[in-house]
Write a structure and sequence with these properties.
Layout (H helix, E strand, L loop, with lengths): L6 H26 L12 H16 L3 E6 L7 E6 L7 E7 L19 E3 L2 E3 L3 H20 L6 E7 L9 H8 L7 E5 L10 E6 L1 E10 L5 E2 H4 L6 H10 L22 H8 L5 H8 L16 H7 L2 E8 L9 E2 L2 E10 L5 H14 L6 E10 L2 E2 L5 H14 L4 E5 L6 H7 L5 E4 L14 E3 H18 L8
Parallel strand pairs: 3-6, 3-7, 7-17, 8-16
Antiparallel strand pairs: 1-2, 2-6, 4-5, 5-18, 8-15, 9-13, 9-14, 10-12, 11-13
The structure holds ligand BES and manganese (II) ion (MN) (2 copies).
Length: 473
């Protein structure tokens, strides 16, 4: 294949990146000081502040039409563009500025919202998930714009509610549809299989999140005076939750696997070609001594389990705190249940099956309330064609080694609907969440050497993608 590279221009852009990398990291730190936790409902001043910071940053680097997209009662999204590369393709770049709650303060080695560098990593809530995702693009865009201009047209959308399921994407899509046309989507919010190993994600799981509450009596009772005939709500809930997996490690909900698509040979070969070391996996995940691998016992590959099979997790469970506990019968108990879905499971059907199962398995006639909190669809693509080849070359230039194709056990609600609305355009998913980044946990961190490599890769990516056939030319 003959590729004409515009090397002198790229060299200038890369020089600009190196000269200003410290400033970019400083901006990333400033953004990471803003506690934009989307789980705290709107109107949330921190999310406004973070949207405003993003908008100002976009303007500063030379993007145009930077605007906070507001819908009443929704955490703000931010948009900007640069549309002066006549005849060249348009890229839609996506990242999110909202973050997960910080978790337990005592478990952070440095405060969650005081980004701190240690051993080549930057620690803080949201640094890798996903403020770095935005910063990668901002650094690369700034360098091009300050060096004279971009080889592609750019539209940037920075989500403000990804971590709670981007429930209002549909509304934004409807309202801003005409602005969002693009030939390629680039998302910087996924993982690398290992530090320093550039990875392109070809599949995301979906998720269905359900809250369940069980109630038996209308006030706490002395467990000696009443214990026996009076139903124990926490025990009822635990019985129900315990029934959701069987001895083989499968999710025990009728019909749940009916639509699960068997792995095709191409995907299986791709999986089998990836490096995997069980000891390292256990160590990165923090398995304690004697703890065994869970999930379906007849599936050996952990990647297959994480990327291509459904999974269930109880992410919150409460009945009564240990502090101040007394011998009582606790009247009610609550849990949050997440089921990760894969092709061709249906999110609404999965939610319904889970809710029905919880009702059916409730012992002693306890009252059960269920509420579906969020849903996101799975997504899978065939990572072939010009755009993926361009991404492979760009990542090889930035990281100095060949990339791998990986799936992702996590979910990004944006991908499926936007790829569809834009007519099935290629979506390139790359990112910096390495196995020890602790996204969603305490001591979340970003590997700074990979951040630099990702910025360089994105510089090459814009250049590579500028040579794709543009439908507008
Ligand atoms: N960046 C993650 C998705 C991800 C997870 C990518 C793991 C790579 C590896 C994203 O911010 C996320 O956490 N998504 C939520 C979505 C949900 C609330 C709909 C998730 O997966 O829990
Ligand atoms: Mn993310
Ligand atoms: Mn996340």
């Amino acid at each position: 294949m003959t590729v004409t590279t515009n090397t002198p221009a790229i060299d200038g852009v890369l020089g600009h990146i190196e000269a200003h990398l410290d400033e970019t990291i400083e901006k990333l730190k400033q953004l990471s000081r803003i506690p934009g936790v989307s789980a705290d409902p709107p109107p949330n001043p921190a999310l406004k502040e973070s949207a405003e910071f993003v908008r100002a940053w976009m303007t500063e680097i030379g993007l145009e039409n930077a605007e906070i997209l507001e819908i009443e009662g929704v955490h703000p999204y931010v948009y900007a563009d640069w549309l002066h590369a006549e005849g060249a393709p348009t890229l839609l770049l996506y990242a999110h500025h909202d973050v997960q709650p910080p978790g337990r303060p005592s478990h952070w080695k440095s405060p969650a919202f005081e980004p701190t560098e240690r051993d080549g990593r930057l620690y803080g809530r949201g640094v890798v998930d996903d403020k770095a995702g935005a910063a990668i693009h901002f650094a690369a865009l700034e360098a091009y714009i300050k060096q004279g201009g971009l080889p592609v047209n750019i539209k940037v959308i920075i989500d403000g509610e990804e971590e709670i399921g981007s429930e209002n994407l549909g509304a934004f899509l409807e309202r801003y549809r005409s602005r969002l046309d693009a030939e390629v989507i680039v998302l910087t919010d996924t993982a690398n299989l290992a530090a320093g190993l550039p990875s392109i994600t070809y599949a995301l799981r979906g998720i269905v999140i359900v809250d369940v509450e069980v109630a038996a009596i209308d006030h706490p009772l002395h467990s000696g005076i009443w214990g026996g005939p009076v139903p124990d709500a926490p025990l009822a809930l635990c019985t129900m939750l315990g029934s959701l997996v069987d001895a083989e490690g499968r999710i025990a909900i009728d019909g749940l696997y009916d639509k699960v698509r068997p792995l095709d040979d191409t995907v299986r070969e791709r999986l089998e070609g990836l490096p995997y070391d069980e000891a390292e996996f256990r160590q990165d995940a923090g398995f304690l001594d004697g703890v065994q691998m869970a999930g379906e016992q007849d599936i050996r590959s952990p990647y297959e389990k994480i990327w291509h099979r459904p999974a269930i997790a109880i992410s919150a469970l409460e009945a009564a705190p240990m502090k101040g506990a007394s011998n009582q019968i606790v009247p009610s108990a609550r849990a949050r249940i997440g089921i990760r879905t894969v092709p061709d499971m249906d999110a609404a059907e999965t939610a319904e099956a889970l809710c029905k199962t919880l009702h059916e398995r409730a012992p002693w006639g306890v009252q059960v309330k269920v509420e579906v909190k969020a849903k996101a669809d799975w997504w899978i693509t065939d990572p072939s064609g010009e755009a993926f080849e361009a991404a492979e070359r760009a990542l090889a230039s930035g990281f100095g080694r060949d990339s791998v194709y990986i799936g992702c056990g996590g979910s990004i609600p944006f991908v499926e609907p936007f790829a569809k609305v834009l007519g099935g355009v290629p979506a390139l998913l790359v990112g910096l969440e390495d196995p020890i980044c602790n996204a969603h946990s305490e001591n979340e961190s970003l590997l700074l050497s990979d951040f630099r490599k990702a910025v360089v890769s994105v510089v090459y990516l814009y250049d590579e993608l500028s040579r794709l056939g543009s439908s507008k030319s």
